[in-house]
Predict the structure.
Amino acid sequence: MTEQWVALEPGTDPSERVRALRRAHDRFTAAGTVARPVRPVVAASWRRSAGAHVSPDASASVEMPEGDVGSYRAEHPLARVMPLFRELMGTFAADGEHLLAVCDAHGRLLWVEGHSRTRQAAGRMNFVPGARWSESAMGTNAPGTAVAVDRPVQVFAAEHFIRKVQPWTCAAAPVHDPRTGRLLGAIDITGGDRLAHPHSLAFDQAVARAAETQLALLAPPRTTEPALRLTALGRDEALLLTPDGHKLRLSRRHSELLVLLAGHPEGLTGDELLCFLYEDESVTPVTLRAELARLRRVLGPDVLRSRPYRLSTPVDSDLTTVERRLASGAVTAAASAYSGPLLPTSQAPAVARIRHRLADELRAALIARGDPDLLADWVHAPWGEDDLDAWRALAAIRPTPPVLSRLAALDDELRTPGPYAT
């Protein structure tokens, strides 16, 4: 086969190919071996699916209720090109009894639109907004595989890893942020065997490229008033982006002050800031006032107000982004925005409390979600490599030798008394 990303070559009998693929799928699920005519991209996806312990009889999980999906996708970058998707693919989907679907970079469906009867049929296998269709959850499927390999791909009939999905055929193409190259998600067309044609994959890819072009032409989203943007996760010294585009690297103390003031838009008194910032009770108000005076010179005289101390300009931050997404149940999006502990070397009591609370809430959400990819990302990050509970949760759903080995090592460390143990 000359093009492994296209499901059927011209002249191929679809019915015969379906029968051959079903035999190959049965052989793979029984013995783990891949037989012809399975394409290399599908064979690799089957192996990843099996490695993630996906059952061929699994069902999709709806992770987010409808209300939470709405709030999550409203702030997703692909929301800005949904009118384009509908214009280019909506009529094609409705007239052809297909579905137009859009997923995020983690394979979660954000929009599923198209022919009403087809949508009802897809709903019976939870191909609905808020459901996770990543390879690690649902095995080989076009949107999940497209984001996994970052390539346009078709998945035809019994190429799907999960049996209840095998009556369907789909084609998906990834969409990237044109400025950063970051994967945003994928645009998918799902329906019957008629989609197993090179033109459907080319069409899907053309729509994805058109979306990237439009994103490049669109101005950044406008806000009702200028805001400061603070980046403080995973950094000892925060970065501040001003409305005019300047980046300021803040000192550690100024980073702590901005985190606290941003979290208290109503303002804080000098006594409250002293308590929040300093473990040493002997620190005087004069020291604090000097720090605030220096911060005022950095920010400008009209930004930092006093009596009480407060910011006159709204501040958004990566901290609030994670908090907001956790509150809405968007655990995957929260994990993607979490680049590390808040000001990790800060000794300020209030900052330390926020740091531990955020990490604990995200960690608990990841364990409750039970997604092996998200848990693997957590435990392989510097802040999660010794997290015994997270390793146990990962081992329960992905008991690979490296995972079990690391879990055993952590258990041994906990059982081994230290040099000063009595």
